[in-house]
Design goal:
mainly alpha, Serine Threonine Protein Phosphatase 5, Tetratricopeptide repeat, 23 helices, 77% helix, 0% strand, rod-shaped, disordered N terminus
């Protein structure tokens, strides 16, 4: 790519410089003939030989002459075609510093110097020459404007990059994708989210298969605290079959949860599992179970938590299953599940003993209830609750005994 560019620049140089210079009295016949020889060598691909001729000529021409200015300029282009950018810059700048080149040629050379600096990542130096060159243009092209936008963006002058990018896009019926990317990135950097939203919508319209644009638009809406719009964008991308990465599907599910649509989140997870887009591991099954809980689908939540317990190999998820059984008034199932949880191992057994004590109290199995609650009281996390429930269970037992003794009389 660089070699092609350099070849085109060489053609431009000779088209602009040599014919004009040949007619000028300040260019000697010897210099003109040598430069013409150099042009032929370079056209034949003998650039190294051309450089030797030019370096010899540079030692023969007089100082402060057009001969030297054109020799330096040609030497700069020759080194550029060899991708010797530091040498090319040195010669081209020396040619410019002589201030003898015609105005049109001078600014064209300045543009080349700017491009060379940009190719080396020296964007501040590039900007100095690019600005001077651009100011001479009467009707800049889209490519010239986007070049300026790139230079300003690379030097973190995003507020100056944006107008050039916008002008470049508006000036052609077929703006390039990279131009929109530059405009959007600059808008993000300046936190101009409305502008980023507009450009991303245009990008999605032009390149609808690019998943990143849908995700970036959703992220704009999230930053603007418009979760409904973010969810709508991500769901549309999902329906179009664009969300393929695990992180993308996860973002969609989390947005559904955030928007208070847990049933949709759960169904999205189930669909992603079926399509092998998400691993059916503990992380996602946990999210599935909690989504079903939030959606008040207790049977589905119980199934998911039971699956989670098998994946984790512990009893933590089974305590959640027991809770759901308790909410449905299925005390027998709750008791069985809590015992399974304790047998499977728990990080904090106190909570399971507490729940088991409550279940047994509700079943009026007070002897076993007291035993479970005493075990719960031995753990710091459940000591206070277990103590209260012991008192409550004792009152329940006394009331049961009183009813048994005097209830029929």
């Amino acid at each position: 790519m660089r070699k092609t560019c350099c070849s085109l620049l060489l053609i431009l140089f000779f088209a602009l410089s040599l014919p004009v210079s040949a007619a000028a009295p300040t260019v000697s016949p010897k210099a003109y003939n040598k430069l013409n020889e150099v042009q032929k060598l370079m056209s034949a691909g003998q650039t190294k030989d051309a450089i030797v001729v030019l370096e010899t000529l540079l030692g023969e021409v007089g100082d402060d002459t057009m001969d030297k200015a054109l020799t330096l300029q040609t030497l700069g282009y020759a080194e550029m075609s060899q991708e010797n950018f530091p040498k090319a810059i040195k010669h081209l700048r020396a040619s410019l510093d002589m201030n003898l080149l015609p105005e049109k040629v001078k600014y064209t050379v300045g543009y080349m110097v700017a491009q060379l600096y940009a190719a080396q990542g020296k964007f501040d130096d590039a900007l100095t020459f690019a600005t001077q060159w651009f100011d001479t243009l009467v009707d800049p092209t889209a490519n010239q404007m986007i070049f300026m936008a790139n230079i300003f963006a690379q030097t973190r002058r995003y507020d100056q990059a944006i107008p050039f990018a916008e002008r470049a896009i508006a000036s052609t019926d077929q703006p390039r994708e990279s131009w929109y990317q530059l405009l959007t990135a600059a808008s993000f950097e300046l936190k101009r989210y409305d502008a980023a939203e507009r450009s991303l919508k245009q990008m999605i319209s032009a390149w609808p298969a690019n998943t990143e644009y849908w995700e970036q638009l959703a992220s704009v809406y999230v930053v603007q605290e418009n979760d409904a719009a973010a969810l709508s964008v991500m769901k549309m991308a999902w329906l179009k079959g664009l969300l393929q990465k695990e992180s993308s599907v996860k973002s969609l599910v989390q947005l559904a949860v955030t928007r208070g649509i847990p049933e949709q989140a759960a169904r999205l997870l189930e669909s992603a599992f079926e399509k092998k887009m998400l691993p059916r591991d503990a992380v996602y099954v946990d999210l599935l179970a909690n989504s079903w809980v939030a959606a008040r689908e207790s049977d589905k939540a119980i199934n998911a938590f039971t699956e989670l317990a098998k994946l984790q190999g512990t009893g933590e998820a089974l305590t959640r299953v027991a809770n759901l059984h308790m909410e449905k008034g299925k005390l027998g199932l709750a008791e069985t599940t809590l015992k399974q949880a304790l047998d499977s191992g728990l990080k904090d057994p106190g909570k399971a003993w507490l729940l088991l004590g409550i279940v047994l109290s509700e079943k009026e199995e007070f002897s076993n209830s007291f035993e479970a609650l005493r075990k719960a009281s031995s753990f710091e996390s459940t000591r206070k609750q277990a103590t209260r429930w012991l008192s409550y269970a004792e009152e329940m037992r006394k009331q049961q005994e009183w009813q048994a003794r005097y209830g029929s009389s």
